[in-house]
């Protein structure tokens, strides 16, 4: 349980925080690249949730198959929910800054 709590509660540190404060992330415009729009959405996620989104990848561990599969499903579901929320932030940022929404591929 402690391993799971540590893994989920990863906060932004060091270089990530520097990127969040970069002017290209904080001052989006119609010419902002996909990277900066998506990073601004991740920053918004971090500001709301207090943690970074999870990837959904569960590291190898000692467990019986049923428990591992159940935990893997939890991670996958949480990662999908995080991605959906970030995509909604991307759409809002695009709308707010006059960026064509279709210019950012949802798989980005």
Protein architecture, described:
The protein has 108 residues and is an all-alpha fold. The protein is built from five helices and no strands. The protein has helices at 2-8, 14-21, 23-26, 34-49, 65-97. The longest helix has 33 residues, at 65-97.
Per-chain topology:
Layout: H1 2-8, H2 14-21, H3 23-26, H4 34-49, H5 65-97
Helix pairs in contact: 4-5
Outline of the structure:
This protein has 108 residues and is mostly helical. Helix content is 63%, strand content 0%. 13% of the residues are buried.
Spell out the key features of this protein.
disordered N terminus; 108 residues; mainly alpha; 5 helices
SSE string, helix = H, strand = E? HHHHH
- Describe the largest sheet: none
Structural class: mainly alpha
What is the number of beta strands? 0
SS summary, helix count: 5
N-to-C CA distance: 32 Å
What integer value in Å does the Rg equal? 16 Å
Helical content band? 55-70%
Shape: elongated
The whole-number mean of residue pLDDT values reads 84
Low-confidence stretches: 1-9
Strand content: under 5%
């Amino acid at each position: 349980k402690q391993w799971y709590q540590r893994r989920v509660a990863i906060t932004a540190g060091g270089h990530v925080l520097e990127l969040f404060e970069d002017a290209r992330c904080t001052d989006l415009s119609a010419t902002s690249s996909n990277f900066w729009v998506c990073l601004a959405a991740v920053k918004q996620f971090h500001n709301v949730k207090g943690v970074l989104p999870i990837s959904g990848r569960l590291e190898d561990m000692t467990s019986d198959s049923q428990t591992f599969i159940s935990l893997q499903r939890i991670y996958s579901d949480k990662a999908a929910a995080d991605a959906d929320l970030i995509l909604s932030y991307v759409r809002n940022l695009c709308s707010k800054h006059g960026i064509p929404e279709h210019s950012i591929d949802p798989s980005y």
